[in-house]
Amino acid sequence: MENKSLDNFIFDKSLLSQLNWSKRFDIILGIARGLLYLHQDSRHKVIHRDLKAGNILLDKDMNPKISDFGVARIFGDDTDSHTRKVVRTYGYMSPEYAMDGVFSVKSDVFSFGVLVLEIVSGRKNRGMYSSGEQTSLLSHDRALCGHRGQTWKLWREGNAVSLLDEAVAGAGTFQGSEVLRCVQVGLLCVQERPEDRPHMAAVFLALGNPGAVLPQPRHPGYCTDRGSASTDGGWSSTCTTNDLTVTVVEGR
Q: What is the per-residue pLDDT across 140-153, written as a single tens digit (0 to 9) for each?
């Protein structure tokens, strides 16, 4: 694609300023529309399982396209599924998928919520590692998240607008109510319990309707870096980044 992938823009300070708030909001809506199609409007329900900034391609007009369906799964109903090979991109995985290998459309919703918060803030959610050295947008510990604090605490303090990327905030060309709505939708999508997260139809409606009344989000889910137990006593784990996939399998 002409503009490569989303992560090239939102995580590169030299390119970040090219994404004003209007364009960021359009990208969020575009991703939501694409995920809604996969979950609801396509002939077969598709769960992407590896939704992340690196898998969102941008065309010449900066319109987003969901890509890389190498680990996607097709389903005909809403039943949750299990896997012993967890495809991991740290920071985007829902807790139930990372820890127990359980995935559903709500796993994609969690990843979408992380994407929304990254696009708003211009910061990467690196997940919670056992060393505690990485920052996290979802962590419950303010000390892990830099000078702007973490999303959940800012939301509870009524100061969620301060999460907005400084490059956008400094330009002053954003609508505060729109930013708040995006943060609230993002937090609703990353709630710890899958049943608390909205479906993409409700997400898309909430984003596109300024008058929509949204529920208050519960605390977000996040997890430490550990393998998923399997029924045969072993475990398998797949860790993905934008450039590399590493699979480790241990025997009994």
A: 444 334 434 478 88
Angle at 103 between CA 100 and CA 109, to 5 degrees: 125
Q: Are 197 and 110 in contact (CB under 8 A)?
A: yes
> Tokens representing 125?
């959610």
Residues annotated catalytic, as ranges: 50
Provide the CATH topology of domain 7-250: Transferase(Phosphotransferase); domain 1 (1.10.510)
Would the pTM count as exceeding 0.90? no
Backbone angles phi, psi at 245, to 5 degrees: -120, 130
Residues 6+ apart with CB under 8 A from 191: 197, 217, 218, 219, 220, 221
Angle at 189 between CA 222 and CA 59, to 5 degrees: 105
Residue tagged 């995985």 (tokens): 93
Long-range contact list for 76-81, CB < 8 A, 24+ apart? 76/44, 76/45, 77/45, 78/104, 78/105, 79/104, 80/104, 80/194
Burial of 242 (0-12, 13-18, 19+ CB in 10 A): middle
pLDDT digits (tens, 9 = 90+) for 26-66: 999 999 999 999 999 988 889 998 999 999 999 999 999 99
Single-letter residue type at 185: V
